Amino acid sequence: MKLIIAATLALALSAPVLRAADQGHDVPDEEHRHEHTAPHGGTLVVLGEEFAHLELILDPGAGSLTGYILDGEAEKAVRIGQEGIDIKINDTLPPGGESDKSGYALILKPVSNILTGETAGDTSEFAVQSDKLKGVQKFDAVISAINIKGQTFRNIGFRFPEGNE
Q1: Among 25, 81, 51, 70, which residue's Cα sits nearest to residue 153?
Q2: CATH of 36-160, one of 2.60.120, 2.40.50, 3.30.1380, 2.60.40
Q3: DSSP string spanning 101-121?
Q4: 61/103: higher pLDDT
Q5: Which regions of the chain carry the CATH code 2.60.40?
Q6: Of 31, 44, 120, 164, which has the most beta carbons under 10 Å away?
């Protein structure tokens, strides 16, 4: 009896998937549904194959860019000892303005936080302020290198605010 109930339940649960496949629809798989949500509402840049993430938040009014190192699920902060994160901005686009393809480099510096106990050399937060970011809404950039838990990720390209996922 238990076997009949289990078989009936399995058949009932698989029917919608089989029906979608029969009608020529793509059956969703885990890879296509795998998404992350930025905990600070920023842009996610994936590092490695979901090894970690860098969340970037741009404040165009202040010309500031803040980055948070996060785990592979983009949920928990990951502290690193890096002295700075070098980002080469290749192209910026202010609202209604012309593209600036001259490019420039920025260094996000470690941020200490008394509430979390994070200090320079042991932090998950990095930030920079630059007048070149004032009014910017979109940009293309490359992160030179980030070392997280013994792994170094180099030349990570992305578009802001889209990210690279």
Answers
A1: 51
A2: 2.60.40
A3: -S-EEEEEEE--BTTTTBBTT
A4: 61
A5: 36-160
A6: 44
